[in-house]
């Protein structure tokens, strides 16, 4: 645990030690409006796809499929 705190202090990064799903469940409860969250997330995903090589077109396509499947606009 000390090494995780040291990294945060010296590098300014957080390490998710308990797993991504547990962390997501914890932080998602703080979102007041899920529609706004999804809208902003979608916009950021598209911007990232345009500005980096990490987000590919198929990521955008799959995200769009998920939105359509659950009728999220």
Describe what this molecule looks like in 3D.
The chain has 2 domains: 1-30, no CATH class; 32-73, no CATH class. The protein is built from 4 helices and no strands. It has helices at 2-11, 20-28, 34-51, 57-69. 0% of the residues are buried.
Topology (elements, then pairings):
Elements: H1 2-11, H2 20-28, H3 34-51, H4 57-69
In brief:
This protein has 73 residues and is mainly α.
Strand tally is 0
Gross geometry = extended
- Give the overall pLDDT as a whole number: 88
Amino-to-carboxy terminus distance: 41 Å
Strand content: under 5%
Task: Tell me the radius of gyration.
Answer: 16 Å
Instruction: Provide a count of the helices.
Output: 4
Oligomer: single chain
Q: How many strands, what sense, and barrel or not for the largest sheet?
A: none
Element-by-element helix/strand order: HHHH
- In which range does the helix fraction lie? 55-70%
Structural class, judged by helices and strands? mainly alpha
Number of domains: 2
Unreliable sequence segments: none
């Amino acid at each position: 645990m000390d090494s995780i705190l040291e990294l945060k202090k010296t590098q300014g990064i957080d390490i998710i030690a308990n797993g991504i799903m547990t962390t997501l469940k914890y932080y998602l409860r703080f979102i007041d409006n899920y529609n706004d969250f999804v809208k902003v997330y979608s916009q950021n995903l598209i911007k990232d796809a345009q500005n980096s090589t990490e987000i590919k077109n198929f990521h955008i396509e799959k995200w769009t499929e998920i939105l359509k499947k659950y009728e999220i606009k």
